């Protein structure tokens, strides 16, 4: 028969024995496991919360910001000119991470180009400079003269807008 609550040597490591054994060895195995599980459970919960926060925060960093802008291209008066401008805009929108120009619409009658693009990767000035380097004046930027010289003769004649102060050969011509 085992002593209950006694001070025998057999009770020290068992953890389920008398009072003296429990006090000497601390809480029993089940209590120690419960404390360990609670501590690790909180660590796991915190790890999940931190991971969710990181994922949520990074989602904002990679969110696309789509903008639409109208560019004034005074010399874009033909289908050929519109195609050159479109090609320039599409090429500036290509990158290693994907296409940043989503849509290009030309309006030859009003000499306007509408561009939908990802403004997190591409800025308005990038679009304007692309049109400028295609040989056309755009908004407040004059045409790049070297690029304008490479345009077909019919397009070069229309390549100088009136706001630059240079004569416009197309002025006064009737259709």
Write the layout of secondary structure elements.
Blueprint: H1 19-25, H2 29-61, E1 66-72, H3 79-92, E2 94-95, E3 98-99, E4 101-107, E5 112-118, H4 124-133, H5 145-150, H6 153-157
Antiparallel strand pairs: 1-5, 2-3, 4-5
Structure description:
- This protein has 175 residues and is α+β, with helices and mostly antiparallel strands.
- It folds into 2 domains: 52 residues, no CATH class; 99 residues, Alpha-Beta Plaits (2-Layer Sandwich), CATH 3.30.70.
- The protein has 6 helices and 5 strands.
- β2 and β3 form a beta hairpin.
- α3 crosses α4.
- The longest helix is centred in the N-terminal third of the chain and has 33 residues.
- The C terminus is likely disordered.
Mean pLDDT: 75
CATH class of the largest domain: Alpha Beta
Task: Examine the secondary-structure arrangement and name the CATH architecture of the largest domain.
Answer: 2-Layer Sandwich
Beta-strand portion reads 5-15%
The count of β-strands is 5
Provide the CATH topology of the largest domain.
Answer: Alpha-Beta Plaits
Label the overall shape: rod-shaped
Trace the largest sheet across and list its strands.
1-5-4
Low-confidence residue ranges: 159-175
Q: How many independent structural domains?
A: 2
Q: What radius of gyration results from the CA coordinates?
A: 37 Å
Query: How helical, in percent, are the residues?
Result: 40-55%
Number of discrete helical segments: 6
The succession of helices and strands, N to C, reads HHEHEEEEHHH
Summing up helix and strand content along with how strands pair, one would put the structural category as alpha+beta
Report how far the terminal alpha carbons are from each other.
Answer: 120 Å
């Amino acid at each position: 028969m085992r002593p209950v609550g006694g001070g025998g040597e057999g009770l020290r490591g068992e953890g389920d024995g008398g009072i003296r054994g429990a006090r000497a060895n601390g809480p029993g195995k089940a209590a120690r496991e419960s404390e360990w599980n609670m501590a690790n459970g909180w660590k796991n919960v915190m790890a999940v919360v931190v991971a969710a926060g990181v994922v949520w925060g990074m989602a904002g960093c990679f969110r696309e910001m789509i903008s639409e802008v109208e560019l004034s291209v005074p010399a874009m008066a033909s289908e050929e000119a519109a195609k050159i401008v479109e090609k320039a805009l599409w090429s500036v929108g290509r990158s290693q991470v994907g296409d940043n120009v989503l849509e290009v619409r030309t309006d030859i009658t009003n000499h306007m180009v509408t561009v939908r693009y990802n403004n997190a990767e591409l800025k308005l000035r990038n679009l304007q400079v692309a049109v400028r380097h295609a040989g056309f004046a755009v908004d407040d930027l004059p045409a790049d003269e070297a690029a304008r010289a490479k345009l077909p003769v019919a397009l070069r004649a229309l390549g100088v807008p009136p706001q630059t102060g240079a004569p416009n050969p197309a002025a006064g011509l009737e259709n």
